[in-house]
Write a structure and sequence with these properties.
Elements: E1 2-6, E2 9-10, E3 14-15, E4 18-22, E5 25-28, H1 32-40, E6 45-48, H2 50-59, E7 72-74
Parallel strand pairs: 1-6
Antiparallel strand pairs: 1-4, 2-3, 4-5, 5-7
């Protein structure tokens, strides 16, 4: 599990999109307190540009279409 923050602007969600990802799952993190709590329990956080952000998603089997505000995407 990783906590990703995109430092570039992404289509449809803007700059600073933050989410938790795992193999074939993505959940949007909407508040700083959620992010801080996840870091506190040991989930590694990474700041990435748009290219690297989408490369990580691709590697985990997550489509670009999953990147939305309030996303809670899982492929079973």
């Amino acid at each position: 599990m990783l906590l990703l923050r995109c430092t570039d602007s992404l289509s449809g969600v803007g700059k600073g999109y933050t989410c938790v990802v795992d193999t074939r799952s993505l959940r949007h993190i909407a508040s700083a307190s959620q992010m801080n709590n996840l870091v506190a329990v040991g989930i590694p956080a990474r700041n990435l540009n748009a290219v690297a952000f989408y490369e990580v998603l691709n590697g985990l089997g997550i489509p670009r279409a999953a990147v939305k505000k309030n996303a809670d995407w899982t492929r079973g």
